[in-house]
Amino acid sequence: MYDSSSSPLNGIVVVDFTTLAPGPLATLMLASAGAEVIKVERPGFGDEMRIYEKAFGDGGVTFSILNAGKRSVVADLKNQDDVIKIKNLISRSDIVIEQFRPGVMKKLGLAYENLKASNPGLIYCSITGFGQHGPKSSIAAHDLNYVADAGMLTIGETRAGCPAIPPLLAADLAAGSYPAVMNILLALQQRNQTEKGSYIDVSMTDCLFPLMFWALGLGWGTNSWANDGGRLLTGGSPRYQVYRTSDDRFLAVAALEDRFWGNFCDAIELDHSRLDEDHHPREAIRAVSDRIQAKSSAQWRKIFEKRDACAVVANTLEEAVQDQHYLERGLFDQKIEKESGSLVNALPLPIVPELQRSTPSPKKVPSLGEHNQILDVWTRLHPFRRLVL
Fold this sequence. Notes:
Blueprint: E1 13-16, H1 22-32, E2 36-41, H2 53-56, H3 61-67, E3 71-74, H4 80-91, E4 95-98, H5 104-107, H6 112-115, E5 123-128, H7 143-149, E6 158-159, E7 162-163, H8 170-194, E8 198-203, H9 204-208, H10 213-222, E9 240-244, E10 250-254, H11 258-267, H12 281-292, H13 297-304, E11 311-313, H14 317-320, H15 324-328, E12 335-337, E13 343-345, E14 363-364, H16 373-381
Parallel strand pairs: 1-2, 1-4, 2-3, 4-5, 5-8, 12-14
Antiparallel strand pairs: 6-7, 9-10, 10-11, 12-13
């Protein structure tokens, strides 16, 4: 047994209708902070991540790391009896989170307006690509489409005349999961003050714009829009650049300030006073590149090990998860148990350990519909639960 009473979200119940990545990562963070997350899945195959094993890892590992520690119930939302059970569950819950296209939950009779009468303290969060209203609100799209539509794709360095596909799901996660959690926590605090719930409309494209603050400021302030990959932070400066080493590894340099730039140039034995960065940045980049290509990544790693120069040899992901720094910080200590019984590392979350629920390790991944009894006995199990905390 364990005591989770000190967890920040202890006693908070979340009904989760989401699939794939944005919503599941958001509810994983809420569960990590102590909330009880009940995942509502479709009959037959549930969350799409359950059936993407070949694409996303053996044994559904991606589903596992995003949904460990949650409960799974199966409900046919087109079946009125199942909808009644879900409504009863929601009437005694704190948070609903969904990421259907706008209008879908209304057709199912599960929109915020349908639910708040029986649960005035309900916090209801919808995550979509383009928000609940506007000309693009019903367009089907994925992460790459959102970053393209918001102008993010074209501000970076290009490869062979074509923008590079971002290596992270910026829209889904940075502009979807994180804003959802942030606004849900704010809504909980507001509910503590007003005893009223709220509706939260998270548009992933809307939330991409703050991530481009520097490019927006440049455009609005000087009418110079970053669309060529040649700006200070997008490959146009020798100070903020990726250079190839002699063994085909990469050195990431972010020596923006003069003191770092001076230390960097001293380390590579280049007289930076002879570089005309402002008028001939490409020539400066080539001069630095020639120096970096003369040595291996191991040599550069040793040279910059004790230099205050903002220069780092790029790790592979495999190397990063074995890096002594992250291991000493315990970043990958927690494990989860997949349905097969095998163990994999739990996903590190941006919640400090002191605020995470103290749970047995490993956390278990729910099988499809494993906790369906919740739908039948929820009222009996929680007859006196307060809706407004």
